Amino acid sequence: MRIAKYDWLEAMRNSRVEGDTIHIPLPYSGILYLRKTHQTPEKMFVHYYDNYGNDLKYPVKVINLADYTLDELIEKNLTFLLPFYLFNLEDDLKDYNKEASREKIITSYDELFQYLNKLREQEKLNVYQYSLITDMLRKVTDNLAQSNERARKELDEFMGGKILEFKNERLLNEGGIKDLLSLVHDGLLNADVAADRAAKEYGISKEDFKKRLDSYQPNDELMQG
């Protein structure tokens, strides 16, 4: 139902009228399954029909996250899927008290944060995107590890340490100012609020910040959404 609703909303957003015809281009969409079982379909279809006897049926790509390794997600630059990769570690989280499972999980989390921090360092993730992804990593971890208190506590501490370490090294500097400029440019933060934060956190005057904002040009290589 959600995929059909998404397709229809996107199609209507890009629709156009030419003479007596309304053109409604359907987007190329897919369904992502976070877990894969014997009941998971290999393909699906969306079928529209009306009361006049007309119908439209088209295939929808099915993507199973379980089919991707962490290296493949990183290689394909599927950064937005990284928090959900943790579903592939669900069985190991249940066996977290076993040394082999614990080592596999810690190694995977370490690789995740090395990749995210590298993107942040290269300015391919702004502070908003970085925070969004790391926050989602925490939420998915809390959900999957809720039955194992040791796993939940140790992984929360691990992630907190990685985030704090990176912020201390990278965010509290000129890059932080660029993040504020980017957030204002993208309409995610009010200019006056950003100027206040720049003055308090980075020691530059509000006037200087607004001058930088007037001449700010976003990096075209930054990832979008």
Number of helices: 10
Which segments are poorly predicted (pLDDT under 50) over 5 or more consecutive residues? 220-225
The profile of the biggest β sheet is: 3 strands, mixed
**Strand adjacency order, main sheet:** 3-5-4
Order of helices and strands: HEEEEEHHHHHHHHH
Query: What is the mean pLDDT?
Result: 83
Distance between the termini: 24 Å
Task: Count structural domains.
Answer: 3
What is the SS-derived class?
mainly alpha
Helical residues, percent: 55-70%
Radius of gyration (Å): 22 Å
Bulk shape = flat
* Beta strands, count: 5
Strand content: 5-15%
Pick out its properties.
225 residues; mainly alpha; 3 domains; single chain; two-stranded antiparallel ribbon; disordered C terminus; flat
Q: Could you walk me through the main structural features you see in this protein, from its secondary elements to its overall organization?
A:
The chain is mainly alpha-helical and 225 residues long. It has 3 domains: 2-65, no CATH class; 68-171; 174-214, no CATH class. Helix content is 55%, strand content 12%. The chain has helices at residues 2-13, 70-75, 82-85, 90-94, 99-121, 127-144, 149-171, 174-185, 191-202, 206-214, and strands at residues 16-18, 21-23, 30-33, 44-49, 55-64. Strands 3-5-4 form a 3-stranded mixed sheet, with no helix packed on it. It has a two-stranded antiparallel sheet with strand order 1-2. Helix 9 crosses helix 10 (206-214).
